[in-house]
Write a sequence for this structure.
């Protein structure tokens, strides 16, 4: 078997071309594959479609690709900390599909397990199911592309909406520990979306802070088995960014 270990982030993403689809792990700025995103920015791929919980911040994570105008479409559940994201969306430069967070998670998981679609109660009776959500605005502020209505069915006495699963050309994830066979361990909040994004990728690339040999990870501690991972790159300790710093003023202090 060929080794899954790749020498650099640049080599790991070298075949990501224009118009590729990317499932990207992380939650806020926790556990985002920043080295891989930076390598894509350096390589120049554009017209990308991204599936991710959020789109980083203006100068970090997916926000770098966004600021460079490399992203065509985003499917996400939260985008509130990125001013450039809002500007591009409202100006008609970016197509955006907002989806409930749990639905996004299940769409990724379903894609990784071969389930083409599923029914969920989330979004029933709202524009999520009935259509009309503005996916893309025109330059004059009108809606250029609206979301279509989705199929609904009643099971028992409750209505559900049909959601399609997600598969992406590539998945980019960050793990605290990985072995050379691709078995991964995620740290705390980084567990959000990283395993699910990894499952949804046809080619999954993992950057890891610590790379070990097979057998050094207790099998019971593996969060994602190596069968889902095709490439591993050792990027070392990650610089942890704070997305939104909140400071409590000391009583009686002057500003």
């Amino acid at each position: 078997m060929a080794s899954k270990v790749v020498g650099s982030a640049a080599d790991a993403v070298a075949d990501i071309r224009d118009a590729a689809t990317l499932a990207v792990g992380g939650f806020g700025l926790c556990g985002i594959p920043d080295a891989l995103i930076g390598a894509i920015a350096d390589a120049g791929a554009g017209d990308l479609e991204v599936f991710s919980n959020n789109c980083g911040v203006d100068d970090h994570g997916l926000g770098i690709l966004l600021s460079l105008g490399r992203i065509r479409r985003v499917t996400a559940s939260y985008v509130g900390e990125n001013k450039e994201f809002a500007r591009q969306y409202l100006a008609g430069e970016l197509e955006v599909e907002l989806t409930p967070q749990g639905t996004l998670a299940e769409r990724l998981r379903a894609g990784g397990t071969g389930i083409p679609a599923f029914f969920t109660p989330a979004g029933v009776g709202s524009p999520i199911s009935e259509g009309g959500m503005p996916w893309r605005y025109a330059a004059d502020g009108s809606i250029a592309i609206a979301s279509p209505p989705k199929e609904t069915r009643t099971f028992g006495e409750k209505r559900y909406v049909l959601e399609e699963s997600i598969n992406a050309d590539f998945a980019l994830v960050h793990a605290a520990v990985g072995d050379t066979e691709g078995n991964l361990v995620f740290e705390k909040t980084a567990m959000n979306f990283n395993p699910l994004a990894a499952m949804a990728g046809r080619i999954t690339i993992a950057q890891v802070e610590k790379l070990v040999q097979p057998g050094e990870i207790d099998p019971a501690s593996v969060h994602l088995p190596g069968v889902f991972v095709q490439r591993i790159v050792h990027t070392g300790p990650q610089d942890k960014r704070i997305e939104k710093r909140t400071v409590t003023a000391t009583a009686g202090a002057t500003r």
Summary: The radius of gyration is 19 Å. Helices lie at 9-12, 34-43, 62-67, 83-90, 101-113, 127-130, 194-200. The CA atoms of residues 126 and 133 lie 10 Å apart.
